[in-house]
User: Fold this.
Amino acid sequence: MLLAALLLIAMILILVSVLSVSDNLIQIEAKKRGIDTQRKNMSIFPRFSDMFGKPAPDFADPSKFHHLSQGHDIKLTGAATGPRVKGMAARYAVKPTDWRGIAPIPKMVVSEGDDVKAGDVLFYDKMNPDIKFVAPVSGEVVEVRRGAKRAITHVIILADKNQTHKQHDIINVDKASREEIVDYLKESGAWTLIDQRPFNVLADPTVVPENIFISTFSTGPLAPDLAASAEGRGADIQEAVDTLAKLTKGKVYLGLDGRGTPPPAALTSVTGAEVHYFSGKHPAGNVGVQIHHMSPIKNNTVVWTMTLDGLLTLGRLMNAGVYDTTRTVAIAGAQFLEPTLVETHMGASLDDLTKGNISSEGTTRLILGDVLSGKTAGKDDFISKDTNLVTSIKEGDEYELFGWLLPIKPRPSISRTMPGFLMPGHEYEANTNTHGEKRAFVVTGQYEKMLPMDIYPQHLLKAIMAGDIERMEGLGINELAEEDLALAEFACTSKMPLQEILRDGLDMMREQG
Assistant:
C-alpha cells in the first residue's frame, strides 16, 4: 500500500511538472508571436475570468470587448456635471513646452503687436521647419514669454470678440497621396495634434506608423465625459479617420467606453477603423493600456496616438478648411465653488476660466489634468494642448499627528487599513499631502495590481535607475508613458516618483536612438 501510494504521488508530480512546463512554453511562444495573452487565453488551464468574467454589453462586439480587472478608481468630490457653458477667455497661449521632441527655442514668425487669425503660423521647430505651430484663436499677440536660458514658454494672444479663421484649401482625401496629406497637415498646424510612441513625442513625419490609436474616453479622477463632444460630429470624425487611415500601413483603432451607456453613434458608426470597447477601473481609458490590448507595440515599431479633441479638430479642418480647437474643459474639484463644464479653445487662460470660482478656504493648487498625472499650474498659466480637465485641490500643508498610521479621517487609499474599502461609492475631499517621504524601494507587488498590462513595472523601474538599456527594452519600456504609471505612483509604499523615473528612462532610450 505504501509503495502504491508513493508511485501515485510520483506520477501526479510528474504530470503536474509536464503540464506546468508545457504551459510555460506555450506562453513563451505566444509572446514571441505577438499574441495578447491577457485578452486571449493561451494556457492549458481555463481562466477564472473566462468562466465567470464580466460579459460584453449588448452594444459591444464580444470579440472586441476588453474587461480589465487591474486598476483602481479614485472618487473625489467636485465632479463637473450638467450642460456646457460658453467660456470664451480674454487671452490664449500656445506653449512650446507642451511638445516633446522640438527645439526649446523655436523660430518665431510673429512678434508682439501682430494680429493673427485662428490657424495663422506663430512659430516653427528649427529642427523641422515644415511643421508649423498655429494660433488657436484670432487676436493680437500681446506677449512672448520666456523662461530659463531664454527658452520660449508662452506665446500669448489677446482674443478678438468675433473670431476669424484662416481659410485653407480643402483637399480630397480619397484622391490625395500620403505625401500630399502629410504636407497639408504640417502646413495647417494639424500635425502638432499627433503624438508618437515609443517616447510619447511629437510624431515624426518621415516615419510610417504601424497603427494609429485614439482613446475616446478617460477614467481618471474627475474626468469629464469626453464622448459628449462627439455628439453631432459624425461627419468630422469620419473624415478624420479616413485621413489617418492614409497615413498608416496598418489600422486606425478607436477605444470606446464599454462601462455603461452606449457611446454616441458618431463614434460607433465609424467605418475604416477597428472599434474596441473597454471596461474596468482606471487606467482603462489610457491610450497606452488600450494599445497593449488591441495591438501591442513590438520592438522596432512605431505607432501614433491622438486625442478625441485632436480628432475633432482634424475632421473640421479636412471638411471645412479651418483650424478649430473648440473643446470642452471640466473645471472640477472640491476647491471650486461651482464645478462646471466650459466650452472654450485650446490654450485658454486659467485666470479667465476660474475667476471668482475658487474657494477662499485653505490654499488651493490648480492642476492641468487629473491629480495623478496632471501638472501643477503656475501663476497666470494657460491650459495645455491636450487639457480637458482643470482640477482644484487643497494643498497638504498641515501636519497630521500619526497621519500615516491612524485612519483619522477618510482619505483615498488602496490599503485596507483605511476604512474606505467599506464605502466603495464614497467621494473624498483629498489634499496634496503624500503622508510620508521617499523610502527604500522595496518589492511589494502593488504596481502589478494597478497596471492592466503584461509588464513588470518594478523590475523595469529598477532597470532604468541602473541604466540597463537592454533590460529596459526587454521589460517593455517602449509601451509606456508617464500616465500609465501614475496610479502605481499613487499606490507606492516607497513614495517613489515613478513617472519621473520613467521619463528619465524614455529620454535615455531616445538619446540612444
Observations:
- The longest strand covers residues 139-146.
